[in-house]
Recover the amino acids of this structure.
């Protein structure tokens, strides 16, 4: 196991009816900028719950943050926050809203160009951003308990991840009841998103980290166990609660401690979202199994371990493990090829290869996913 440090200051308030406790955790006297998405929280009653809990605080609201939050839209929230002199940011939504709110919180007091934060030309330091809290409405990304944010710039077809230890939310409220109004597609995406987050930190190569492996396997097994119930209508509270905690646990920077990480699937997927508008989880599912087949030799030991411990494949090869993963995605209704979305893999491969070559991008736990290898993976997604 490799050396590591672990820092995570986010306080989690979890369970049914916890949105009302927002007032118990918010500092007195702060002026709050509430960031939210396209308006679903007004239809399902979450907005009213949040505003009732904020009674007594001065509140400014900003709505319209999209999936894969766009930089230009977020700059409108930054302008509003500066005009109103807010001193606390509350994100009410899923990972996109939370990611966007992280940039808003970092940008309001920042004197430079906020794009420098996204490109990490400027590294956000402790004391720089406004404090941020979240009310999670969609379990998927884990952004409610980590320090990472992914921002799109639609004007330039870019989607970039940035991170800072200063960007952990100070607290996050997780009420599984808010998932009851979500469409099945979003629950499906949340299951796949969480699953891929785990395997990006797990299916690499062994480093004698048995506890981290078992933690990762526990999340994967739980997602497989509850997936069908999590998708059913009427919703099953226990399944939705387990999904919400799995998604948070998948990327709260705990299971990656002391182990190598991959993230090539994510970074290739980001380009597919930037070019073609695929949902984040959709982009992951069309890359992951094909990346594993291309990099099978390098990942063989962990693929075999995954197959044996997660799927009970005693004595079976890595291809069978990949096939089981792919079949699980199909079982929740998630396609695993670009052609299923009407996207030409050859065209996509060429676009991503050119962009990676321009940036000098090399990915993977062994730093061996070159632009050419990334293109090969995309071509296989047919």
């Amino acid at each position: 196991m490799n050396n590591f440090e672990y820092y995570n200051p986010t306080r989690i308030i979890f369970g049914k009816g916890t949105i009302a406790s927002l007032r118990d955790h918010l500092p007195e006297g702060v002026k709050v900028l509430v960031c939210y998405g396209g308006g679903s929280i007004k239809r399902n009653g979450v907005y009213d719950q949040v505003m009732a809990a904020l009674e007594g605080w001065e509140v400014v609201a900003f709505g319209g943050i999209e999936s894969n939050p766009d930089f230009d839209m977020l700059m409108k929230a930054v302008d509003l926050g500066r005009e109103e002199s807010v001193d606390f940011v509350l994100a009410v939504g899923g990972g996109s809203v939370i990611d966007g709110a992280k940039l808003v919180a970092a940008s309001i007091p920042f004197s430079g160009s906020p794009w420098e934060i996204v490109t990490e030309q400027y590294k956000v330091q402790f004391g720089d951003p406004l404090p941020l809290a979240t009310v999670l409405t969609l379990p998927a990304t884990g952004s409610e308990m980590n320090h990472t944010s992914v921002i799109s710039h639609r004007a330039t077809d870019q989607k970039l991840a940035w991170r800072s230890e200063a960007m952990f939310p100070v607290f996050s409220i997780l009420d599984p009841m808010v998932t009851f109004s979500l469409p099945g597609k979003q629950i499906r995406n949340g299951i796949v998103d969480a699953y891929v987050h785990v395997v990006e930190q797990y299916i690499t190569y062994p480093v004698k980290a048995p506890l981290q492996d078992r933690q990762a396997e526990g999340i994967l097994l739980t997602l497989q166990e509850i997936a069908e119930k999590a998708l059913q209508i009427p919703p099953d509270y226990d399944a939705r609660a387990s999904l919400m905690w799995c998604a948070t646990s998948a990327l709260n920077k705990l299971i990656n401690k002391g182990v190598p990480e991959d993230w090539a699937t994510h970074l290739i997927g980001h380009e597919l979202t930037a070019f073609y508008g695929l949902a984040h989880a959709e982009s992951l599912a069309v890359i992951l199994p094909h990346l594993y087949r291309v990099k099978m030799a390098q990942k063989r030991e962990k693929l075999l371990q995954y197959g044996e411990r997660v799927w009970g494949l005693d004595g079976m090869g890595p291809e069978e493990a990949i096939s089981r993963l792919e079949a699980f995605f199909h079982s929740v209704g998630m396609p695993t090829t670009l052609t299923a979305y009407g996207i030409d893999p050859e065209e996509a491969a060429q676009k991503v290869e050119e962009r990676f070559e321009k940036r000098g991008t090399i990915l993977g736990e062994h730093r061996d996913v070159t632009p050419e290898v990334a293109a090969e993976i995309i071509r296989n997604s047919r």
